[in-house]
């Protein structure tokens, strides 16, 4: 079975981020999307620790311990970028000013519920950070994840079994096997990797899947 | 003449006692007022309630405070990290109480305290474990959770420059929680790289007005820090 690589997934998400968008890329896989945003497009990357207009990692030796991203890695500020405190930063999300956030996930339900902060396992120390604020705050929440776990279980589910991050907040998932819209109407396949059929995808996920009139293959 | 400057970190924290609630600025190590925390550890006080975004990174700041066994409870959003071993050990040993708060709710609750609000309705966390048994309300078709302000006896924050009236400017992403914590604590203590004369800060770019700051201490080493290797 064909699967998209991490880079291909990141490039696919990047394609759907328009000029002028204010975007937060979550910790982990979503940060890769930044590498694929076309340079000719003005896109404003927000980092919840307090910067807008985030640039790439600095050159070696130019790291500044007070210029970091939400993953606490050194970054740079683009010309025209700015700093702000935490209340303003989260007002950008909760207040509906941020256009898109891209998050990783343990599970997403066909109705757009998200579980990405806690496995709920006994002994696990929970940590939530800004995940709940981002998930419900951004105008659109995209999830980027492998569609199946290593054991072959679908991470797109009818109902999340992991503790929830937010209800009905995800609009689209970008996976290694295709792009799927989720929401009140359920899941609808927008794109499939070359060679994969909708029947096969239904079998793999075990969830009801509608499909867009014209399925594109990537 | 009003002069909020204090000669040393030790003098700045001299009245923080056992059982105090203390907000500590910083996101990871950026904006963490290490020297004020070191002075607090040296004072020997314990049973503290700490409010910070994290629960310590590496060996300094909040991590050192936890390692020294001075923290009874921590209110934070993101305790578990690759370098939060001192918190992890204390938590697993049942020596520290954790109140986990979504990061934006943490900021909003601190801001609410500083602004004198009785409570807030926030959409963040609705329908999740972190809102269990909390009051909710539907307003204009959207669901919200009732959350109460977080205030503290003291706030320890780090800024770039201050003056003797307590006006502050910050540096890059070290700003993070500083401005809102300054508003939410009864006594706010700022460590700055430089205390400048009145008029030395452009009034158009002052981020924290001096009314929110009670003490300013100059810590020369607190300027730009190189990244840890």
Task: Write a concise synopsis of the structure shown.
The complex is a heterodimer of chains A (218) and B (229). Chain A is α/β, with parallel strands linked by helices.
| Amount of beta strand of chain A | 25-35%
CATH level-1 class of chain A: Alpha Beta
**Beta strand % of chain B:** 25-35%
Give a short account of the largest sheet of chain A: 10 strands, mixed
Task: Identify the biggest protein-protein contact and residues per side.
Answer: A-B, 41 and 53 residues
CATH superfamily (homologous) name of the domain at 19-101 and 151-221 in chain B? Glutaconate Coenzyme A-transferase
The appropriate CATH architecture of the domain at 19-101 and 151-221 in chain B is: 3-Layer(aba) Sandwich
Total beta strands of chain A: 13
3D structure, described in words:
The complex is a heterodimer of chains A (218) and B (229). Chain A is an alpha/beta fold. In chain A, 16% of the residues lie in helices and 29% in strands. Chain A is globular and about 50 Å long. Chain A starts with 5 loop residues before the first helix and ends with a strand. The longest helix of chain B is centred in the middle third of the chain and has 13 residues, at 103-115. The model of chain B has no long low-confidence stretch (mean pLDDT 96). Chain B has 229 residues and is α/β, with parallel strands linked by helices. Chain B is globular and about 50 Å long. In chain B, strands 1, 2, 3, 4, 5, 9, 10, 11 and 12 form a nine-stranded mixed β-sheet that branches. A three-stranded antiparallel β-sheet of chain B has the order 6-8-7. Chain B has helices spanning 9-12, 34-43, 62-67, 85-92, 103-115, 178-184; strands at residues 5-6, 21-24, 48-51, 71-76, 97-100, 120-122, 136-139, 142-147, 152-162, 168-169, 185-195, 215-218. The interface between A and B is large, with 41 and 53 residues.
